[in-house]
Design goal:
about 120 residues, elongated, 4 helices, about 75% helix
Length: about 120
């Protein structure tokens, strides 16, 4: 370790040691804090407007996609001749049932393997 002091560091400390006018410093600080707050509010408003416009633009296509998926998952696996029995077995006789079982098996396997 040396006792030499860095000249540049000493110069920076000397510049920072100047007395500041208290009133001007407080005014500048409050103004810059208010500007930052205003910018933050404007950014939040811009994000909200963009999200609203995007949701209005993509609402119909997303709804159509959801309807297609729902109709696809509700398709019966096997046709049952008796309408009462077919209606009673419909919850387990859809494409969604094997998908749900596969999902649950994969989740259980992941939990056992990566505990």
């Amino acid at each position: 370790m040396t006792d030499e002091r860095d000249r540049e560091l000493n110069r920076l400390f000397a510049e920072a040691d100047k007395p500041l006018d208290g009133e001007a410093f407080a005014t500048w600080t409050m103004r810059s804090a208010g500007d930052g707050r205003r910018r933050h509010v404007v950014k939040i408003l811009v994000v909200i407007v963009v999200v609203l416009l995007a949701s209005m633009l993509f609402a119909a296509p997303m709804q159509q996609a959801a309807i297609l998926v729902m109709n696809g998952l509700a398709t019966p696996l096997f046709t049952i001749g008796d309408p009462v029995l077919g209606a009673a077995l419909l919850p387990v006789n859809t494409i969604a049932t094997p998908c749900a079982l596969l999902f649950l098996m994969l989740r259980a396997a992941r939990r056992r393997l990566f505990r």
